[in-house]
């Protein structure tokens, strides 16, 4: 089984785990957008929702600092705002939404990923929340993600790591109650214009 199919089957299964109905996956479809972003779509009409996962190609970031992905996720969560359908955890961005809202919510998640505001205020808040979570042991973090590794990371570390994320080293999986051509169109609209790495927006610290 090739790499795309392995990722598709594993991710699609995780994304649809909340449904108690018998799963009815079609063969996952993998392809690339013109900008190099890897797209995987798995249809399952027994699922109650449409799910999406944005992940990094681990091989492209094998020299990353301990805890940097988790801290960036925490920073991105501070950017999410009021959309409860979007979250960042488990080394990925996650979306669970009604099928009719997939394009709208996926476009919002894409805009957030591509144009994150990463300033000192957001960094401090995100870092404090992550350390609180680690101390409370309310999530099974990797052993390299601990209070010491997170405290060792700076705002510049997060900004630098973020600046190296570009379409060709990412995967987008769409699974669940979706139709293939509709999901393809939604992925293209959300991420098709992402052509290069963008610097984080400093924002205004109040």
Tell me the distance between the termini: 51 Å
The overall average pLDDT, rounded, is 87
| Structural class assignment | alpha+beta
Low-pLDDT residue intervals, each spanning 5 or more residues: 16-22
Number of strands: 6
The percentage of residues in β strands lies in 15-25%
Instruction: Give the overall shape.
Output: globular
Strand order of the largest sheet: 1-2-6-3-5-4
**Gyration radius, to the nearest Å?**
17 Å
What's this entry about, in short?
The protein is α+β, with helices and mostly antiparallel strands and 206 residues long. It has seven helices and six strands.
Q: Could you characterize what this model shows?
A:
- There is one protein chain.
- The protein is α+β, with helices and mostly antiparallel strands.
- The chain has 7 helices and 6 strands.
- It has helices spanning 3-15, 68-80, 102-114, 120-136, 147-151, 155-163, 180-191; strands at 29-32, 38-43, 50-56, 86-89, 92-97, 170-176.
- It has a 6-stranded mixed β-sheet with strand order 1-2-6-3-5-4, sandwiched between helices.
- The radius of gyration is 17 Å and the shape is globular.
- The N and C termini lie far apart (51 Å).
- 36% of the residues are buried.
Give the tags.
alpha+beta, 206 residues, six-stranded mixed β-sheet, single chain
């Amino acid at each position: 089984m090739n790499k795309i199919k392995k990722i598709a089957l594993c991710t699609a299964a995780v994304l649809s785990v909340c449904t108690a109905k018998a799963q009815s996956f079609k063969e996952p479809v993998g392809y690339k957008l013109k900008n190099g972003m890897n797209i995987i779509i798995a249809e399952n009409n027994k699922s109650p929702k449409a799910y999406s996962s944005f992940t990094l190609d681990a091989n492209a970031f094998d020299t990353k600092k301990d805890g940097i992905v988790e801290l960036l996720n925490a920073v991105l969560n501070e950017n999410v705002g009021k959309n409860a359908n979007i979250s960042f955890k488990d080394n990925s961005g996650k979306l669970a939404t009604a099928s009719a809202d997939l394009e709208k919510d996926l476009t919002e998640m894409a805009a957030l990923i591509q144009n994150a505001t990463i300033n000192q205020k957001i960094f401090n808040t995100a870092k404090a929340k992550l350390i609180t979570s680690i101390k409370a042991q309310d999530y099974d973090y990797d052993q390299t993600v601990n209070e010491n590794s997170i405290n060792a990371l700076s705002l510049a570390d997060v900004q630098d790591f973020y600046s190296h994320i570009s379409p060709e080293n990412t995967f987008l999986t769409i699974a669940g109650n979706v139709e293939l051509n509709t999901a393809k169109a939604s992925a293209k609209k959300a991420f098709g214009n992402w052509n290069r790495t963008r610097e984080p927006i400093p924002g205004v610290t109040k």
